[in-house]
Every structure is written in structure tokens, then in C-alpha cells.
Amino acid sequence: MEPSYLRPPGLPFKVTVPRETQIERLMKRDGHTLEDAENRIASQMPLAEKARRADFVVDNSGALEDLEQRVIKCMPSLMKQTWHRFNNLLTVVVACGVAALALTVLRS
Questions:
Q1: Which of 21, 29, 47, 53 has the most Cβ atoms closer than 10 angstroms to its Cβ?
Q2: What is the chain's mean pLDDT, rounded?
Q3: For residue 49, which of 23, 14, 10 has the smallest C-alpha distance?
Q4: 47 has a pLDDT exceeding 90
Q5: Predicted local confidence at residue 97, as pLDDT
């Protein structure tokens, strides 16, 4: 899960897998030993905690095509939430602009 400063607040998207699958994939992808893979996973936030904090959780224990379908299924909700957050951000930006303009006028 990326650091909070690298993503919009409230929009984490977490892909989960069973621990055994996570270890297998890590060993295969990076050439880690079982012990190294377990240590690396143990040093991270537990998957259950990452999932608890996420707005969208997708299981990736199956084939790539299954993952693709699960992500596509989340897209309407994700787009709706993203649009809502964008509108809120836009409102704040406009309000800050108006406040800055008012301050400029008052100071002159």
C-alpha cells in the first residue's frame, strides 16, 4: 500500500491474496528464499489491516483474467467516488481563490 501522501485520501485500492500465494509469488518473482519472503511480508502492514483501510478490495488469488473482471466490476463505484471527491476539491480550490482575491482587494 502506497504512502498516504502519494494517493488521494480515502481512495486506497487494495489487491489481496492468501498469505501462501503471496509468499509463492514473491519467491518466484524476486528469487527470495522462503525465509526472506516471510520476513519481507512480516515487515509490512498485515493484509487484513490494509484491506480494512481500503475503500476497494479485490481478491487476486485466481487467474489474471479473474482479477481483470473484479477490477472492472469496481470501476463504476470508483469513478463515482472519484468524481465526488474531485467536486469537493474543486469547491475548496474555488473558495481559496475567492478568499485570496478578497484579501488582495482588502489590502489595496
A1: 47
A2: 81
A3: 14
A4: no
A5: 82
Judging by beta carbons within 10 Å of its beta carbon (0-12, 13-18, 19+), is residue 37 exposed, middle or buried?
A: buried
Which amino acid makes up residue 66?
D
How much is the pTM? 0.55
Bridge partners for 58 per DSSP: 15
- Unique residue bearing C-alpha cell 509463492: 24
Q: What's the one-letter identity of residue 5?
A: Y
User: Residue 45 and residue 43: Cα distance in Å, rounded?
Assistant: 7
Residue 89 cell numbers, joined: 476539491
Kindly report the backbone phi and psi dihedral angles of residue 59, in degrees, each rounded to the nearest multiple of 5, phi listed first: -80, 130
DSSP 8-state code for residue 5:
G
Look up residue 58 and give its DSSP letter.
E
C-alpha cell at 83: 468524481
